[in-house]
Design brief:
Elements lengths: L1 H16 L3 E15 L8 E16 L2 E12 L10 E10 L2 E9 L15 H4 L2 E11 L2 E11 L8 E12 L2 E12 L12 E14 L5 E16 L7 E14 L2 E10 L15 E13 L3 E11 L6 E11 L1
Antiparallel strand pairs: 1-2, 1-16, 2-3, 3-4, 4-5, 5-6, 6-7, 7-8, 8-9, 9-10, 10-11, 11-12, 12-13, 13-14, 14-15, 15-16
Length: about 325
């Protein structure tokens, strides 16, 4: 109730004092069917709609926005997922961007699925913290902190932090990803709860091809590493090393993407569980059924092979409308 009153006050202030009032609305239709039988990933169907409405103002390079993000998962009560407040400041100029507050994860943070699974954009769509980015002809580098839990007698202190970037020269590029998750104990120490630390990084290099022609794509590969410890339980950090290879090709509205991983078991706090297998191959057939400046529609048919004999299948449909 207090936050709703704050939003109303902000709206009134914007209407009177705004140098340049702005309104953003994003609708995301979610269709995700997972037929998994590998013992690590959950077999489930996720159908729903995610909406974000925010209003704000900008003065020169400085902006402030307020609003709500809400997820309605089909088949559940309308209040099953509580809405998330949107409230953030943004500074943006050529080659520099800074955000502070509660803002959308999509379009800001982009990591390999091995490190951050795609369901995070459904069930925790906002970053609650800060993010910054530097960009130029040389490439870009961004960093963020996502504060997910303030320590109380019942809540465990938790946060996620990371950085990612790319150096590029003509068609060649070198990408880096570093991610850390920390889960502490609550202030109430009556129960035995152990602190968990996840750390990982990826270093990938590759080439982009066909940027100016109908058929285009990329090929990249490199090292994927994770470190995990549960204090007083594990004997120091458990480390996993592996080789990651990704290639994709696109022709008009059709795409083909292949991902291969081989190596040790990877342990990321919010990573795709498929990377807990020593060998994993994923092939995606992609159809971009809507390509509009404000609307994008994408359908994936995905096949997953692991050390288990039976392959897994999944289908993903995403529809995004931006106003």
């Amino acid at each position: 109730m207090k936050f709703s009153i704050l939003i109303i006050i902000l709206l009134c202030c914007f209407s009177v004092t705004a140098q340049k009032p702005l309104f953003h609305f994003t609708f995301e239709g979610i269709g995700d069917n997972r037929e998994f039988h590998n013992g690590q990933s959950i077999s489930q169907t996720i159908l729903g709609a995610l909406g974000t409405a925010e209003i704000g103002t900008t003065i020169e390079n400085h902006s402030v926005f307020a609003g709500f993000t809400g997820l309605y998962e089909f088949g559940s009560a309308i209040n099953f997922h509580k809405p998330w407040p949107v409230l953030y400041y943004r500074f943006e100029t050529r080659g520099k961007e800074f955000l502070f507050g509660s803002f959308s994860r999509r379009g800001v943070i982009d990591f390999p699925l091995a490190m951050l699974a795609d369901t995070l954009c459904f069930f925790k769509p906002n970053v609650e913290g800060l993010a910054g980015k530097l960009e130029g002809d040389w490439g870009y580098q961004m960093a963020f902190t996502d504060w997910t839990g303030r320590q109380t007698t019942t809540v465990r202190e938790a946060f996620m932090a990371g950085t990612s970037g790319e150096l590029r020269k003509e068609n060649w590029f070198l990408q880096n990803y570093v991610l850390m998750n920390h889960l502490a104990h609550p202030a109430n120490m009556k129960e035995v709860v152990h602190i968990r630390d996840h750390f990982g990084f990826a270093l990938l290099t590759g080439l982009r091809y066909g940027q100016e022609v109908t058929v285009h794509g990329l090929l990249k590969g490199g090292l994927l590493t994770s470190l995990y410890r549960e204090r007083s339980v594990t004997n120091g950090f458990q480390t996993g090393f592996g080789f990651y290879l990704e290639g994709n090709a696109n022709y008009r509205r059709l795409g083909l993407k292949t991902t291969l991983y081989t190596g040790d078991r990877q342990e990321f706090a919010h990573g795709d569980p498929f990377y807990r297998f020593s060998k994993y191959l994923r092939v995606d057939g992609i159809w971009y059924f809507i390509q509009h400046k404000n609307v994008t529609g994408r359908f994936n048919w995905s096949m997953h092979w692991t050390t288990r004999s039976k392959p897994d299948v999944s289908q993903q449909l995403t529809l995004i409308y931006k106003l």
